[in-house]
User: Fold this.
Amino acid sequence: MSTDKGMDKIPTSKVQRAAKIIGTSAKVGGNYVKYFAKKTINPSLSKDDLHSDNANDIYKSLSELKGSALKVAQMMSMDNNVLPQAYQDKFSLAQYNAPALSFPLIQKTFMQQMGKKPHELFDSFSKEAIHAASIGQVHEARKGELHLAVKIQYPGVADAISSDLKLVKPLAAQLLNVKGSDIKLYMDEVEAKLIEETDYELELQRSSEIAAACSSLKGLRFPTYYPEFSNKRILTMDWIEGEMLPEFLAKKPSQALKNELGQALWDFYLYQMKIIRKVHADPHPGNFIVDKENNLCVLDFGCVKEIPTEFFDNYFQLLKPGVFEDTERLYSLYYKLDFFRKDDSPETIEFLKEVYHEMISLLSKPFYSTSFDFSDKTYFNQIYTMGEGFSNNKTFRKMNNARGSKDAIYVMRTFFGLYSLLHLLEAEVQLNYTLD
Assistant:
């Protein structure tokens, strides 16, 4: 829950938002100058303080902007080893603990969107946000016998997506060490998903569709949504009493219960990917609650990735055992998925072949047997070590270009988010689904 009075305003004009991001870039540049000045005196100086200063400055500015700029930070925090730990720790606050807006600003937003103040529409409405993230914040409300969660989108977020991403792109390219021209394809995909994520009417529709499609799965619970109290920028659903995963795990539940929740999570995601070909693509701890009956409650269907058939057929072939035994077939998949490029030199292809072999072998390991123990620290240490190795590999960094199909962005994000949640739960799960 937000404990302060909240933010009284958000920069909404292009000039204001551009000034904020440009100012942040200048601070990052200044931090580098200070770092290199100190390093001339102390050559053994690490980059830990530099990363911490940059993470604090960037997060402070993006949290004041809200919206797509902060969402990009949230996304990067979910991808372990894309950024140093200082960035991951700071940016992860955007998942459900970002600075909230003040109640007067929320009232103004409510009047603009619903034509009424919150207390004119509901019998009661909390003045403080219960949760605040990158796109909007949640308040608790009651209407008759209904106990409700009301998600309110930050003002100006939807209108600023395109201009924000154009401004954030150079900063993201700098942090990720990718050329601006190569990151455009991926920013276009992110932009398309963010535009969808700010459309709460679309979220209401998708949440209802996926909840209905997954209704037969054991151990899951979905809130009911209320169109009469919702529109494009305000979304109202059942309030679900329960605990977020970190709070739930702090009470040290039994291994059997953690396995049950992990199995529900695994089945939910594999069923979406394999059967309905659209997936809740925002798997972070802030989007799941464990209720009093120990059901896993799924929240926030703003980010849903529809998986094209051609991409599914090619991508999931890579996760099957024995894929590396047929080099011709493997290379064909790499070209179809844009892992290889037509202008790659033989040396580049040989180098990337080894990189992809390591990445795919680790990602696909849970699919190689009938069950997998996600509490295995050795497995996750291998993933973290691999990420560190790539970030420090001079050949990899010199390539300075992005690889892979744009459709892989949210599918990979979903897999790594899923694996991280299962590791958090220390769950052992049964595969239950083949990739045929």
Notes: Confidence is low (pLDDT under 50) at residues 31-40, 90-96. The longest helix spans residues 14-41.
